[in-house]
Amino acid sequence: MAFTLSRRSFLASTAGFIALHPFSARAQANQVHLRLMETTDLHVHVFPYDYYADKPVDTVGLARTATIIENTRAESTNALLLDNGDFLQGNPMGDYIAYERGMKDGDMHPVIAAMNTLGFDASTLGNHEFNYGLDFLAKSLAGANYPVVSANVVKTMGATPTEDETLIPPYIILDRELTDGAGEKHPIKIGIIGFVPPQIMNWDRQHLEGKVQTRDIVATAQAYVPQMKEEGAQIIVALSHSGIGAAEAEDMMENASVPLAGVEGIDAVMTGHSHLVFPSPDYDGFPGVDVANGTISGKPAVMGGFWGSHMGLIDLLLERDGNGWRVISHTSEARPISQRNEDRSVTPLVESDQKVLDAAQKEHEATLDYVRRAVGQTDAPLYSYFALVADDPSVQIVSNAQTWYIKQMMQGTENEGLPVLSAAAPFKAGGRGGPDYYTDVPKGDVAIKNVADLYLYPNTVRAVKITGAQVKDWLERSAGMFNQIEAGAQDAPLLNPDFPSYNFDVIDGVTYRIDLSQPSKYDGDGNVAAADANRITDLKFDGQPIDPAAEFIVATNNYRAGGGGTFPGADGSTIVFEGPDTNRDVLVRYIVEEGTISPNADANWSFAPMPGTTALFETGPNAAQYAETIESVTLEPAGESPEGFAVYRMIL
């Protein structure tokens, strides 16, 4: 499979480059310096814009990454630009194209148009490329001015991977000319092979079942790499849309980059999928991973963040070895488009590349119209003013969407049939955010940008499998939101100011009460502080006391499931599903699917009665319009705080 293209990635422009990288200074005759540049997990982020918040941002956007790409090219004699997948879906522009404008034969997808302006040499598919179906994918890829490869998605499976009929070409061999340290040009054949998590068959079953199958990443590489060598590939780069995980290969593993890098014949690995950066401290201590040297299984590797936040860069010093080439030295880095300061502000490090913006300007403007327009209706207001004292509609709608999604994802798995619960927390609930820091979406139209009000963070969906006993302890940890209150106390402060609202998980699918006379079982760091405490009482599932040994699936997010907040049952070891979708995207899909949502809180939790006892809490001044609708607690106004919060008295 030879692919010959004239690329500006091989234009000589070495002025100033020698001072910037020692490989160019050291390269001798028969030695060349080759730069491999990576984008990954762009998720349609062409513009430096947050469509959910409807405002420009400095932390995302291919238009910004493009400036680093062009600067890096200008430094180098020899460079390739490669994309590692997940470019077609992931923000409202992607949804606008898929759900509203559509893709007809001959249409150009805006992210492809933007990528074309940069002269990519090759790309692979990520799992999100399949979210809109195979027809949409094919019509989108038709506009690419560069080859797209993926080796482990097959239409017809043969006895071995090399006998498969793959969905798209499994690899490409690029014919290039490299300039050595003496200024001489040499031909070289560079093989590019791509991989995607086999789990797409679960994640996008409705689009893929009966149409394609997937193979194990490492086994597929072991079959194809020798064939690529036979066809003349002298250097092989793996585009691994697969995270950096365990060192030992397991059949059909999702995050297979470490054993993949160990496949003989692969010279460098571009990784992604995990939305992290490599090399970085994120991967300190991982078996087979050397952060200091930027290697995985001894091979140079990189992961360039997500949404255009970084450009991944591998520098190779190659030496002619007979009729071939071998890597004699290498470095890896991820170059960021912005930096976060100590005061949490962000400083942009580059400006946008205008030609990239121009390529998607029309679709950007259409997307702005799209996110500002209703995608559904809510038959009740969505607000978080009382989210810390009563079951709440803004949290309820998130739980409803998570349950809807995870029930679908559990179909056809070994966990199908287990009861699905959902854990969600209020993100905008005053506190340090101030008296206006609350969700408040009125009854009526719901626009996509309103979803940012409902779900602040770009978390991805996870599901964990835990026991009834762990469900109780999860809720005990969550109940650390409240101070202990003595029976008969008057106007006791209710809320623990050091407990963040995003750790106040409400679990839907069970009913329970919180007994404020009890101490918190867990301290602020999640350590057991009062082993015999039982704040969670009357915990029931399906109307019956919960069975401590029963198994439950709990829908949550990657932060919580991976140990964020130190919740019992959520330390990373109980994860049974890692969704490819953000919780925001799931919420949007749910609203589109339902048309009209009914987010009325179901009052599945409340406080245990404490006769003669009252407590005070703060909320936003605009809470007054909803106070009388809160039926699970008795409230009365109690003034205003110096910071401008409304103070309410809760009669327990």
From TrEMBL:
Gene3D superfamilies registered for this protein in UniProt: 3.60.21.10, 5'-Nucleotidase, C-terminal domain
Signal peptide range: 1-27
One Pfam family, short name: 5_nucleotid_C
Residue span(s) of domain Calcineurin-like phosphoesterase: 35-275
PROSITE patterns, alphabetized: 5_NUCLEOTIDASE_2, TAT
Domain 5'-Nucleotidase C-terminal: 438-568
UniProtKB keywords: Hydrolase, Metal-binding, Multifunctional enzyme, Nucleotide-binding, Signal
Cofactor: a divalent metal cation
One function term, GO molecular function aspect: 2',3'-cyclic-nucleotide 2'-phosphodiesterase activity
Top-level taxon of origin: Bacteria
Biological process (GO), any one: nucleotide catabolic process
Subcellular localization, as worded in the UniProt entry: Cell envelope
One cellular component (GO) term of this entry: outer membrane-bounded periplasmic space
Catalytic reactions on record: a ribonucleoside 3'-phosphate + H2O = a ribonucleoside + phosphate; a nucleoside 2',3'-cyclic phosphate + H2O = a nucleoside 3'-phosphate + H(+)
InterPro entries: 5'-Nucleotdase_C (IPR008334), 5'-Nucleotdase_C_sf (IPR036907), 5'-Nucleotdase_CS (IPR006146), 5_nucleotidase/apyrase (IPR006179), Calcineurin-like_PHP (IPR004843), CpdB_N (IPR041827), Metallo-depent_PP-like (IPR029052), TAT_signal (IPR006311)
PANTHER family per the UniProt record, alphabetical: 2',3'-CYCLIC-NUCLEOTIDE 2'-PHOSPHODIESTERASE_3'-NUCLEOTIDASE, 5'-NUCLEOTIDASE-RELATED
Family: Belongs to the 5'-nucleotidase family.
Record protein name field: 2',3'-cyclic-nucleotide 2'-phosphodiesterase / 3'-nucleotidase
Upper lineage: Bacteria, Pseudomonadati, Pseudomonadota, Alphaproteobacteria, Rhodobacterales
